[in-house]
Amino acid sequence: MSIDQKLAELGVTLPAPKPPVANYVPVVKTGNLLFVSGQVSVDGSGKVAIGKLGGGMSIEEGREAAKLCAINIIAQVKAAAGDLDKVVRIVKLVGFVNSTLEFTDQPAVMNGCSDLLVEVFGDKGRHARSAVGIASLPFGAAVEVEAIVEIA
Questions:
Q1: What percent of the chain has pLDDT over 70?
Q2: What is the CA radius of gyration of the chain?
Q3: What are the structural domains of the chain?
Q4: Which contiguous run of DSSP H or E holds residue 146?
Q5: 61 — phi, psi (to 5°)?
Q6: DSSP3 helix / strand / coil % (the chain, rounded to 5)
Q7: Per-residue model confidence (pLDDT) at position 19
Q8: Parallel, antiparallel, or unpaired for β 27-30 and 33-40?
Q9: What percent of the chain clears pLDDT 90, i.e. is strictly above it?
Q10: How many angstroms separate the CA atoms of 144 and 95, rounded?
Q11: Parallel, antiparallel, or unpaired: how do β-strands 143-151 and 33-40 relate?
Q12: CB neighbourhood size of 102 (10 A)
């Protein structure tokens, strides 16, 4: 099954890739690696999932926000590679979770992103990862994730 078919089976519709909001590019390709700039928790209509983990946002809401980041990463990879079946491996994710000082479950939130990537890409979606708590993110987003992806 192709990755596009897998996305359809999962009911995931890729949005148009989000353009940069400052002086950077969304993806840099060097060799067989794509370095995907941080993708915030925004849906296809442009609505940002806003919130602070430990400050009123539940872990499940945070996981859903992280899943939006995964969908946006996939959209950027497709735009850069032209074909998602060229993905050899999701190499690494760095996740930033908008959270209070007391909140320590950033890894559980980031599982929303990781789980979708593994569901879509199978073993090629298994990756190294960091999950970092941060005081604030652009637009008040709950989560932002950057990725390194190997392509054929």
A1: 100
A2: 14
A3: 25-151 (3.30.1330.40)
A4: strand 143-151
A5: -65, -40
A6: 40, 30, 30
A7: 87
A8: antiparallel
A9: 96
A10: 6
A11: antiparallel
A12: 9
Dist CA 26 CA 110 (whole Å): 21
> 127 with 89: CB under 8 angstroms?
yes
**pLDDT at site 21:** 86
Residue with tokens 């190499």: 91
pLDDT (tens digit per residue) in 88-138 = 999 999 999 999 999 999 999 999 999 999 999 999 999 999 999 999 999
The backbone torsions φ and ψ at residue 75, rounded to the nearest 5 degrees and listed phi first, read -60, -40
State both tokens at 77: 């990879």
Report the side by side order of strands in the sheet with 27-30: 27-30, 33-40, 143-151, 87-98, 128-134
Burial (Cβ within 10 Å: 0-12, 13-18, ≥19) of residue 11? exposed
Handedness of CA 85, 86, 89, 91 (dihedral sign): negative
Any idea which residue has 């430990």 for tokens? 54
Q: For tokens 């370095």, what's the residue?
A: 35
Burial class (CB in 10 A: 0-12, 13-18, 19+), 85: middle
